[in-house]
Amino acid sequence: MRVLGAIPVGLGPEAMALDSSRRRGYVACARSNTVAVFDLDRLTVLAEVPVGKEPIGLTWDPQTNRVFTTDARTDTCSVVDAASLEVLAQIPIGHYPAGNGIHIGRRKVYCGNTADSTVSVVDADQLEVITTIPAALAAGSITGDEQRDRAYCVNFGDASITVIDAATNENVGRIEVDYAPCKISLDASAGLAYVANSLVSTVSVVDVARGKTIATIPVERAPVGLVVSHDGSRLYVGNRGTGKVSIIDTKTRKEWARVPVGTAPGDIALDSVTGRVFASDAGDSTLTVFEDRLTERPRELPKLPKDRSHPLVGRALPEFRLADMADGRERTSGEWQGKSYILNFFASW
Q1: Which of 132, 178, 186, 235 would give a disulfide with 248, using CB separation of 3.0 to 4.6 Å?
Q2: In this predicted structure, what is the pLDDT of residue 297?
Q3: Would you state the pLDDT for residue 296?
Q4: Which long-range contacts (CB under 8 A, 24 or more apart) does 89-95 make?
Q5: How far is residue 111's CA from residue 25's CA, in Å, rounded to a whole number?
Q6: Topology of the domain comprising 2-291
Q7: Distant-in-sequence, close-in-space partners of 309: CB < 8 Å, separation ≥ 6
Q8: pTM
């Protein structure tokens, strides 16, 4: 492996898309509310385009050369003309949209609305919502499948994929995966989807034709992004919890290598011209760029931990006091003693 460097971009970079033919890349910077546009050869930022608040998802339409973001805190899908770098529209969609994807043939952009557990379908040409499709708890990352005329949406809170008929805009199925799926990547020719499951540190291998998970691959810790190579031979997984990218041989379904990148890596993207790998480092506000020169499996990789649980798991929760965000009133953990509840520290890093 050869790390070429890190590109400083906006704050909290998440989803990426690369236009290898025009030598441009795009990344949604969630904490600076922008899309950073970067040069794939010079590895420098060319522009930062303001969009809605907290853009997390991002997809690119090669037919119109437009970038679509999902802006979680403004409940919009922003549309950027990649040639002029102008915002063409900010389309109202569902609540807290956190992921999106495109079906180019059907001219549809799908936006996963996490708080609504729905998918908004946007006309990629008319820039308006066509319909809203029920999904499952905490809908997010989506990919289009041109060969089977489907779209697949991962549901973070339901450990599942919602299958959408791209012709009729109907929810036509559910595929079980592992817990807390964050990102999906499709190898359409092989009929396989790969899903990064953040809470259990695995990747699900899904046979989309049969509608079932056929294998589970362990990775390091908290994978939140991944992409399959253009020839389908390798899978690149961003482990947010360790600052490394796992490289997996898709034939053997084993790790080839782990590449150190920046802090809290998320999305991964590949340049089809140079073969370079880009990782968005949400904790460092950079993009790490490296070349995969591995031709044979390393003799030995550090073993993955058998017990992934934190040493505090199973111990009593210490007492604490916090101000209620709604009215400022002080609340204590004792109010919920003996009850089951969830403390949500999502994206608090």
Answers
A1: 235
A2: 65
A3: 65
A4: 89/127, 90/51, 90/52, 91/122, 91/127, 91/128, 91/129, 92/129, 93/120, 93/122, 93/129, 94/118, 94/120, 94/132
A5: 20
A6: Methylamine Dehydrogenase; Chain H (2.130.10)
A7: none
A8: 0.89
**Residue 337: predicted pLDDT:** 79
pLDDT < 70: residue spans in the chain: 295-299, 305-313, 325, 341-349
Q: Give the three-state DSSP class for 281.
A: strand
Region class of 161: left (phi > 0), else alpha (psi between -120 and 50), else beta: beta
Q: Look at the chain and count its residues.
A: 349
Dihedral angle of Cα 227, 94, 55, 82, to the nearest 10 degrees: 80
| CA-based nearest residue to 288, from 32, 34, 38 | 38
- What is the per-residue pLDDT across 186-196, written as a single tens digit (0 to 9) for each? 999 999 999 99
Place of tokens 């003693």: 337
* Backbone torsions φ then ψ of 144, nearest 5 degrees: -95, 145
Domain ranges of the chain: 2-291
- How far apart CA 231 and CA 312 sit, in angstroms, is 43
Query: Which tens digit of pLDDT belongs to each residue from 226-235?
Result: 999 999 999 9
The pLDDT of residue 349: 40
